[in-house]
Amino acid sequence: MITFPQGFVASGVTAGLKESGKPDLALVVNEGPLDVAAGVFTTNRVVAWPVLWTRDALADGSLKAVVLNSGNANVATVGGMSVTTATAEAVANALSISANDVGVCSTGVIGVTMEAQPLVDGVASAVPALSADGGADAAGAIMTTDTVSKQATFETGFKVGGMAKGAGMIAPGMATMLCVITTDAVVDSQLAQNVLKEAVDHTFNRIDVDGCMSTNDTVLLLASGASGITPDSHEFARGVREVCADLAKQMIGDAEGASHDINISVTKSATEAGALAVARAIAQSNLFKCAIFGNDPNWGRIISAAGTVPEEIAPFDPADLAVIINGVPVAENGVDTGRRDEVDMAGDRLVTVELQLGSGIESASILTNDLTYDYVTENSAYTT
Amino acid sequence: MITFPQGFVASGVTAGLKESGKPDLALVVNEGPLDVAAGVFTTNRVVAWPVLWTRDALADGSLKAVVLNSGNANVATVGGMSVTTATAEAVANALSISANDVGVCSTGVIGVTMEAQPLVDGVASAVPALSADGGADAAGAIMTTDTVSKQATFETGFKVGGMAKGAGMIAPGMATMLCVITTDAVVDSQLAQNVLKEAVDHTFNRIDVDGCMSTNDTVLLLASGASGITPDSHEFARGVREVCADLAKQMIGDAEGASHDINISVTKSATEAGALAVARAIAQSNLFKCAIFGNDPNWGRIISAAGTVPEEIAPFDPADLAVIINGVPVAENGVDTGRRDEVDMAGDRLVTVELQLGSGIESASILTNDLTYDYVTENSAYTT
User: Fold this and answer.
1) Distance from CA of residue A324 to its chain's centroid?
2) Nearest alpha-carbon partner for B137 in B163, B156, B166
3) Best of A308, A324, A355 to disrupt the B interface by mutation (most B CBs within 10 Å)?
4) What is the pLDDT of residues B204-256, one digit of tens each?
5) Fewer Cβ atoms within 10 A, N terminus or C terminus of chain B?
6) A176 an active-site residue?
7) Is the distance from CB of A168 to CB of A207 less than 8 angstroms?
8) Rounded to a whole number, what is the distance in Å from the CA of A307 to chain B's nearest CA?
9) Can you tell me the distance from the alpha carbon of A162 to that of A5, in angstroms, rounded to the nearest whole number?
10) What is the pLDDT of residue B229?
């Protein structure tokens, strides 16, 4: 809930970008006294116009408002930068602030040229709707294939709130996800940036739906300072990370068409980076993800995926591998234990997979989900 | 057809490894006068026992026979090496040759411990069934989820024949594929190895069904010299490559549950390696593959996948990208042409995608297919 911390108002309205007529434009305004902001963006080389705009706007470490739309990602569109500029200027004019203090985020279909007018008109509706109770409306207006809106809060003197959208293309380097985190703590932009980067690396970057990295991923942190509390930096980091972790978990729980969430832990690794690389390789194996959909503890597909990671990244001896699925050791010392039939996952929303590399004491986890008919349905019919 | 060249006999029988009772053991014997052999194997670090065996057996550049089974991949199994050894020894004893001259290949489920006896009994049936007309039976016995057997031939004085199995897990570094190429040309093992490696790199390694690399992939080339013809090395390379290319095309055409084949060409690249990396990134995007299943020319997912390839691998400016789908330019200079609706792919088995990077004159192609309900069905129910 982005209006949970003091100093923020928000709204969510219908600008008409979605054919469904559902709300598709959100506005969040930081009323201060501070206007500190930080951001983490997609590492995709093909980026949306709003990402280019917002990176620039953030260069001075401040934003006073963020406008977000769903229904069109405004990437690879003709005249897309002028659409984004017009949107930011509409917000700036209505609030009597500089356009350079307005962040813009877009999500939806890629490569379909859009007009500025619906966005400008949407802003005109969103400004009078701004309210200290508007967080939920804003969270609803950024949904695309999400089935539920995602919000989270944290409080320990100062408050942190957040909203996110994202249910597919969740991948290394984030995903098609937009996220706004708000706080009323007194922090400077350098701390905000460091804390946000660290939080994203350990939360949104540890979930992986389909290995696809979006052109629009944006996570913004806005600090109003309205609580008057200057938190300990570790405490502030904990608050931001908990909100991000909560939102990440909600995203994976709402991943497009999934029937199981899968927590993949790679343990006994020489390095954390190696464990992470192996966990990601498993999370991106379509064969493994199909097997879990079929409630099949097909651990051969786990070690097969692990074996594609180069030795210099994750040293291990295949003869040392052990696999535990939902608590049942199905492989030890690199071979079959004959206990595959004991694994029961049919009724579980969460399936746990542990792969022990036998080469050290480090570990890392990735949260992903299974590959289902519904995933194919949602992603084959999304733009048509 | 592996018995197309002179000097080879083959058979395919039922050893009882498949619950269906279909043929599951193939034997091919090189009757000479030469026993030259070459091989290319999976680069997965987790490899099947038969791969370890056959790599060793091939170290001297010769093989006199190859036994292949479907139904169980014999990887990560307890006592799996003794199963493979017993199989090779059964062939060696029956043919009065050394076990070190027998290659072994297995395909099927991973991590399910198997007994040697069915394989040994299968060999006892396969030896008397050996015939100069047995190529088709052998090709049938190595099928797993294949819906048709795959065979190819080439002739220009000397002959080349081949059989392959594989319909899923086709990926960089080959796939769950087994392939045996035979020739009656007079060649030495060094030429055979060089030609086979080059052919595999440009054929089997340019198809990609689901990005998953198998633990068992093996391509073997056996040369009998029975034609008495010593071919020009380029002519020999052409023959082997054409047979591999034909088999690769058959594999992609029979890929698990696909409704469209997709030829992804990346052109105007600074380097061939960069073009290949971009083509592979596109081929491995589930979102792109779902879109094609939905007959949706969602080119944003193409450039989004391209944007995940690091600049040092494939330099390009997103503002220079052009996308052509089934002949229709849907994006130029990095943006929408507004012509998406002109693309019609519903009736086409083959969909062509061209991405122009605008940074050079090199190009590379990957053949893949769409992500469908049937892919999920086949891969979620494969071992259960």
Assistant:
1) 28
2) B163
3) A308
4) 888 875 555 678 889 999 999 999 999 999 999 999 999 999 999 898 888 76
5) C
6) yes
7) no
8) 4
9) 10
10) 97
Distance in angstroms (rounded) separating the CA atoms of residues B165 and B216 = 12
Q: How far apart are CA A164 and CA A173, in angstroms?
A: 16
Within its chain, how far is the Cα of B27 from the centroid?
19
Q: What is the pLDDT of residues A278-307, one digit of tens each?
A: 999 998 888 888 888 888 898 988 998 999
CA distance B260 to B370: 6
Instruction: Give the ranges where chain B is alpha helix by DSSP (H).
Output: 49-57, 80-95, 117-126, 135-141, 189-202, 233-253, 272-283, 286-293, 300-306, 373-380
Least confident of A265-269, B14-18, B148-152, B212-216: B212-216
Question: Which one-letter amino acid corresponds to residue B129?
Answer: A
Question: In chain A, what residues touch B80 (CB-CB under 8 Å)?
Answer: 335
Is the distance from CB of B284 to CB of A210 less than 8 angstroms?
Answer: no
Predicted pLDDT of residue A42: 87
ipTM field: 0.78
How many whole angstroms separate alpha carbon A172 and alpha carbon A119? 30
Q: Rounded to an integer, what distance in angstroms lies between the CA atom of residue B85 and that of residue B217? A: 18
For A256, the token pair is 């497009």
Confirm whether pTM is higher than 0.95.
Answer: no
CB atoms within 10 A of CB A270: 16
What is the Cα–Cα distance from A384 to A298, expressed in whole angstroms?
A: 35
